[in-house]
Amino acid sequence: MAKALNLSPSTSTLPLSSSSKYSNILKTPTTLSFPFSRHPNSLTIKSSAATAIPISTTSANQFRVDILSESLPYIQKFRGKTIVVKYGGAAMKQPELKASVVSDLVLLSCVGLRPVLVHGGGPEINHWLKLLNIEPLFHEGLRVTDAKTMEIVSMVLVGKVNKDLVSLINKAGATAVGLSGMDGRLIMAKPTPNSAQLGFVGEVARVDPTILQPLVNNGHIPVIASVAADELGQSYNINADTVAGEVAAALGAEKLILLTDVAGILENKDDPGSLLKEIDIKGVKKLIDEKKVAGGMIPKVNCCVASLSQGVRTASIIDGRVQHSLLHEIMSEEGIGTMITG
């Protein structure tokens, strides 16, 4: 199994499996770390017993070469391809996870992939609603959005969360462009069938990727807030998973990735060890019929199925609580979550 790069600004760590050709130097291999410097003095391997084993500069340099050579097939496979990432959950709330996602996006962009980031921002919206003494209300898992709440949602998602992400990506060395569904008529919204209960919660009527294509083609990273307007200019709050899936379909993306707070799709929802690494649409629908996929996972799975039916090659649900999960999913043979195929 190919190993996945795990990068941070000053060090890099690489999980070592028992089958790794480097595992013979460790009794209990876990991670390998090394400084990013032109002339490193040593390479350090840390075991689960918290011991450190120094390796010569020659070995360190060879290891770097091996990492790059093993990444080459994945870079070749995805170079020039569009990858749409839905960003949410714990990865938005914890600073180290946020930094991990940003560095992954920048790295993927640097090696020739074309990432597009779609985000929501539920916790941040709740925070600002409470500051303004507005109690968040939910109906069947969806935010009830009256006119006053919609104004706050737009301010937070478009004006704060979006621009914070753009700033972080730019600071990390890439060029990000912040957008909402209203910009360039990127997304046309329509009210949900149960709008009487939910207010200004919308669905995607259509996506026009005209404004996105030149950005993606020129190596920029679009960062899209899941707010859009209808034909009359009324703003709607739209589920970010749905927006990501529809944007992926409109762009003809190679891959859709949903960052979540679960490991992926479990065959037995009570058994974390029953993670399904790969499944097709037919298999997913069977799991839903058997109620093995339930609750908040159903809309995520349906979003993946909808994007696949519109031409997206694969869709993955991965654990955003794991640092550098994007790199693990794209730059390794087995990935880190569940990949759904058409």
Automatic annotation (TrEMBL):
InterPro entries per the record?
A: AceGlu_kinase-like_sf (IPR036393), AcgluKinase_fam (IPR004662), ArgB (IPR037528), Asp/Glu/Uridylate_kinase (IPR001048), Glu/AcGlu_kinase (IPR001057), NAGK-C (IPR041727), NH2A_AcTrfase (IPR010167)
What Pfam families does the entry give? AA_kinase (PF00696)
- Would the keyword Transferase be found if you checked this record's keyword annotation? yes
> Gene3D superfamilies from the xrefs?
Acetylglutamate kinase-like
Q: State which pathway it belongs to.
A: Amino-acid biosynthesis
Q: Where are the transmembrane segments?
A: none
Q: Which UniProt keywords apply?
A: Amino-acid biosynthesis, Arginine biosynthesis, ATP-binding, Kinase, Nucleotide-binding, Transferase
Source taxon at top rank? Eukaryota
Which residue numbers delimit the Aspartate/glutamate/uridylate kinase domain? 81-319
Q: Which NCBIfam families match?
A: argB
Name the chain's protein. Answer: Aspartate/glutamate/uridylate kinase domain-containing protein
